[in-house]
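task queued by scheduler; priority normal; single chain, no ligands, no partner chains; default sampling; output format set to structure tokens
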Amino acid sequence: MSEHHHDEGVVPHRHPLRPDQDDTLTYWRAMEIAVRELLIEKQITTADEVRAEVETMDSRSPSDGARVVALDQSRGQLLHARALLDTTEVDAPLVCASAESVPLATGSFDLVMCDHGAMSFCDPDRSVAEAARVLRAGGRLVFSHTTPWPYLAWNFEKERVGRRLRRSYFGIRRFDDGAGQGTVDFQLPYGEWIRCFRRHGLAVDDLVELQAPEHATTTYDDFDPRWARRWPAEQIWVTRKEW
């Protein structure tokens, strides 16, 4: 459970249905904006139907009875989350653990959601298995993370994404940031992701490849929003537990 800073023109960006201030977003506010983006990106509904859908979502928010549990392996992040929760009426248990070994009961959740985080920094065979384990039948695992393409086009000399592929797509799995900071990202080819989901009883309902809006800007110096206008930099997997 963390803060998300709002960059104008970058998902989640300013939305005509609810103009947002360029300030620090809470976790739930950021997720609401992301869902709005997802609905419009997929052209699922009209603007009026989006409003109705968001009202339905709002009725199931934590303050209206939804039971929420947040997990992070960083005690610092959890302390920050607790401080934010203390400013609201939401009482959500905070669990300090790795997503590769979740200390929660099997079949106890209807939704597992991750915004980058665990699904980027944990071994997919372990994190997907754990997400599937704690889901009830019919429950969903929904997560956003970086697509493979920035990793394949990364220019280590300039320390930014480029317009030329610099490594093979086949066999990708583990990426070190090269900065000696111990950060490791995991990525799989698309077929490997699907096979990983299927091994753990998850069916793929959707894969949304996000395109940066025209004239987008970003505070990330190592990334070019014009690149993300031509090639997908981020994506959202939507999966469902079949058994």
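post-processing summary
- The longest helix spans residues 27-41.
- DSSP finds eight helices and twelve strands in the chain.
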